[in-house]
Every structure is written in structure tokens, then in C-alpha cells.
Amino acid sequence: MSQSNLEKQEAKLKQLNQKIKAEKIKIEQRLGKQIISQANLDYANLSNDNIKSLSKKVSKFLKEKSVDH
User: Fold this and answer.
1) How do residues 7-39 score in pLDDT, each as one tens digit?
2) What range does the domain containing 42 cover?
């Protein structure tokens, strides 16, 4: 395979990885927004400590639910 083809494939791979990363960020943001919205939380009261605590609770709940099924 020529260097040019390798470079093209590498560029495509980088672009694909960037798209995957962007999509993951969008999903994380939508999930966070939905949790905040559904729980009627006030953005003004969400400190980093509160966010960490809530994420641990949600994670624990989801893990317990996945074990039940």
C-alpha cells in the first residue's frame, strides 16, 4: 500500500474517531439534561459535589436494575 493511501486512511480514521467522540458528548449531554429535567433539579444548585453524588446514585440504581433482569 502506498504512503498516500495510508495517509488517506489515517485521515478517514481520525475523522471517524472525532465523529464518535462528538456523538458520545452529545449523548452524555442529552442524558444529563433529561435527568435534570425529569428530577426537577435546579441548575443553580448543582455543584460538582452534587453532580458526583447524583451520578453515583443513578449509576447504583441502574446497576441494581440490570442485575434484576
Assistant:
1) 999 999 999 999 999 999 999 999 999 999 999
2) 5-65
- Whole-prediction pTM: 0.70
Number of domains into which the chain is organized: 1
Give the integer Cα–Cα distance in Å for 17 and 14: 5
Whole-number Cα distances in Å, 63 to 50, 59, 66, 67: 20, 6, 5, 6
The x, y and z cell numbers of residue 44, run together, are 443553580
CA separation for the pair 66, 4 (Å, rounded)? 47
Q: What is the DSSP letter of 63?
A: H
